[in-house]
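Q: Convert this sequence to structure tokens.
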Amino acid sequence: MPSSMASTCASLCRVAGKHDLRKDMRARRAVLARSVPDYARIVAHYAVALDLPDGAVVAGYWPIRDEADPRALMRALAARGHPLALPRIAAKDAALAFHLWRESDTLYDNHHRIAEPAAAAPAATPQILLVPLLAFDAHGHRLGYGGGFYDRTLDALKNVFAVGVAYAGQEVPALPREAHDRPLDAVITENGLRRFHHT
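A:
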């Protein structure tokens, strides 16, 4: 088989593998969400463990379906003096845009039915990014939804500290990954904060 064809085949196999894995992990996450009903309250207690620089801007996300809910954690961080931001999809193939947000601010559903701030809200550059995911492994690699938004965002925000927000049961032994994938710096679950050390 020519090398170019072998490369294409391998790429397609990885895509197919990720598709099946995403399906399986969505089902697993739905079960985990029901089994840890106090998740948001528990995770909020780990705000101190993040040990963030004073005044660092934290970008969270508005959860959909059975995503691990970071909002109580975000409130705890805001109480410690951290400005909050939420992402907005600015363009299909672009990194996410971030805007400052407070709980009293109105959010608007985008075409994915995800709540996001108004485009006119003050722009922000986060130092800490809370990241939703379907799965993570012991090396901090994450499985996202396939849209590439967080991959592009992590590439654009070179110095951001990326923290996956997940149920402990979303950990898997290993994940397929590409050369451009950037691992998480840490993950926070109902069991606490876990930092990853990358060389």
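The helical segments are 3-35, 39-44, 71-79, 149-156.
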